[in-house]
Amino acid sequence: MGAHHFDGYRAARGGGGWALAIGVAVFALGVAVASRGWVEADRVGWEVTDYEPPEPWGWGQWILYYADLWLPGLLVKLSLLLVWSAVRTQRRSGASAATRNRLLTEGMRTTGTISELRIHYSSDDSGGRRVAGATATVTYVDAAGTRRWVTRKYSDASVLVQGGAVQVLHDAAVRTTTTRCS
Asked: What mean pLDDT is predicted for residues 15-43?
């Protein structure tokens, strides 16, 4: 296996949801501005038609009548929730990258063996199947002589072989496995 697979759990390299949060915020601003120009009802509280006598509004019409007040507020709250989620995702990715970088400089490397390999398949509408990833359990012996194991999911199952040797990076100071393997 290549060295590029050693860091298989690399922190997510996405926007962390910022694009969605900004898009919803801009949409909320647009709805807030546009709602000021929404057409007023002909007769508030009554459904007026040309052919039938007026009927009182139901609860749905009243909710829609006040949509210019609650809809922008709801969208602003949704955008704030998405910003909060994006910040959490960014912090979590940063912490994961910091742990990875610390382990790459201070961690211990040892050789492990893939003791269990479960291949995950995906099927399409025509009935065809393809490999969608794998879950591998790796056993290794740490510096203290304790036999340990770690389980990881992989999107590329082509590099994994049952019983194959892999490099394991682990933190000897912490007695739990916070490591990733290739």
From this structure: 87
